[in-house]
Amino acid sequence: MKKIEVRIKTPFGEILIEGENPQEILSMLGTFPENFMEKIADFVSNRLIPSGVQLKGIVEFTTEGPVIVTREKLTHYEAIGLTLYASEDKKGTAAQIHKLLESSGIKSMVPARLNEMTKRGQVFKPDPSKPEFKLTMQGERWIEDDVLAKLRGKMS
Q1: Same structural domain for residues 141 and 75?
Q2: Do residue 13 and residue 81 come from a single domain?
Q3: Cα(48)–Cα(45) distance, rounded to whole angstroms?
């Protein structure tokens, strides 16, 4: 008999569950401890984020993607950069970023800001035929050295 695979996409990667039948998959999912996703997301953000950057208190990882939770004032550029920085592979489409910013309570003309950030060298399109934007190395350094440093200074 064939196996059934269920892939659960999370902000930190993908969970793959295999079983012989749907009941087996459901019973396996039932064995997951309460708050499993939150605990894993916390673990990942605290220990495995590149260059040891801690985003706790600034960004919260949800099933939709990273949501900005800091109460500090951010420019639209900083909010977009931070969202990309915390996103899987540091990339996303204008629509995805817009949706995450809305969840964060931030209203922004994301496509216009991304266009300006491209001119500044902070983001680029890895594949011009796709609507995805990715942080450049300069953009990553800007987030780490300026934006996160500013936010941490105000948080402590």
Answers
A1: yes
A2: no
A3: 6
